Predict the 3D structure of the following.
Amino acid sequence: GAGVSQSPRYKVAKRGQDVALRCDPISGHVSLFWYQQALGQGPEFLTYFQNEAQLDKSGLPSDRFFAERPEGSVSTLKIQRTQQEDSAVYLCASSLDWTVYGYTFGSGTRLTVV
Amino acid sequence: DQQVKQNSPSLSVQEGRISILNCDYTNSMFDYFLWYKKYPAEGPTFLISISSIKDKNEDGRFTVFLNKSAKHLSLHIVPSQPGDSAVYFCAASSGNAGNMLTFGGGTRLMVKP
């Protein structure tokens, strides 16, 4: 596709439920990033992939968060045993050369934990 | 500890005038800076960037200025248009941190017709 596609757009989860958020990056983009954006704040870095390799996961807030990109294209962010503080918009971005073009972000998945 | 700060949560400007959005940072290791624009229910869209070896970068109506000594950057939009109304985020990166961007909290710009 022409852009970064994320699904679902909205997800309501009961506390304690596991969720999986999907990201389809732009074809050919080597780099893929996940960010978390709480209401009224800027995006915060979660993790970074180069192809299938997860090079940085320093932003993942707890071991309940797990991300993978097994074939170097589609990525999944999984949150186990969701908590209310996990409620946020989860943004995925991909890039070819981010210093020239920046990242291209998807529209995000809004997760609400009730 | 916020390393990138946008101290104005909102800004209102008349159409045709200049909009100036400001951003301050604390980490002297940051060497690359970007501005993003975000409409509701959409992801941020890349606007313009600047490397720390420059003090100005221009792209059409958008100009970014970097003052390294003051650890301050600003985005100028001239002339402002109603379609520019959005939330603007500045972001910074350092070579040591790889590709991670640190974002400010955003400034909501409203351009009045």
